[in-house]
Amino acid sequence: MEGNNRNILIGLIAVVIALAVFSSFGLPLFAGPTATITLPTPLPRETKEPGSLEQTGGVRVEVTPQTVQSVISVMERLESYSRTVTTTLEGSSAVAWVWVDEGWTRADMDLPSGLSVHTIVGDGRLWRWYGTEQAVLSWEADSSSMDIEGQRIPTYEDVLKLETDSITAAGYEEKNGEACVYVEVSVPELSQVERYWVSESTGLLTAAETVVGEETVWTMTANAPEIPVSQSASFQLPDGTVLHTIGETAS
């Protein structure tokens, strides 16, 4: 009887050992594969280089002669500001005080001759008068809300109107201490090169020049804009007619 009990005990021990071995090594053979976690590989950080600029969302956009107008067209722009613009033609300078508000533009320019020219553009029309005269000329304006026609004050919209084939260089560079998008245009029939700098921070044309040969014959520079437009700005004609009130949204 004692021998039988010992045999039973040995058999039970063997069964327990077999079950333990099976649970450790046998069950994985019947179970599915163990899930694994793959860590993403870190992406290299992109470095901002000349000829590119960071748009909203951090996506780098290359600036080339073929893409520069598209880049400029989507830049955010101020809707209300005032600034001073100076143009120089063959050594003679003219200074214009420019006010912009909700699609309306006024420019008062002092010419080298001493004559002052006043221009207001808005609501599809242009009004102009000279000095202290009461007579006002008016005609239909073009589609450019910033156009101050005839005063040789270009805007970013003039850059958008350029023939793409005429753009010979474009990139990203500093001008007068300000980060800008740069555009160079060749005008072979006039033997001249035109250059434009559009501010990255304001979207406005901040400088321009025309070069003939090695000589710079015309320049335009603008100071940093005052934001919003100065409350002293007046969109009023000599006869007292108020064309626009600051802060009112154009219809």
Description:
With 251 residues, the protein is of the alpha+beta class. It has a single domain, classed as Clam (outer membrane lipoprotein receptor (LolB), chain A). It is 16% helix and 39% strand. It has 3 helices and 15 strands. It has helices at 2-30, 68-73, 156-160, and strands at 52-54, 60-62, 80-89, 92-101, 104-110, 116-122, 125-130, 137-140, 167-175, 178-187, 192-199, 205-212, 215-222, 235-236, 242-244. An 11-stranded antiparallel beta sheet has the order 8-7-6-5-4-3-13-12-11-10-9, with no helix packed on it. A two-stranded antiparallel sheet has the order 1-2.
Please write out the topology.
Layout: H1 2-30, E1 52-54, E2 60-62, H2 68-73, E3 80-89, E4 92-101, E5 104-110, E6 116-122, E7 125-130, E8 137-140, H3 156-160, E9 167-175, E10 178-187, E11 192-199, E12 205-212, E13 215-222, E14 235-236, E15 242-244
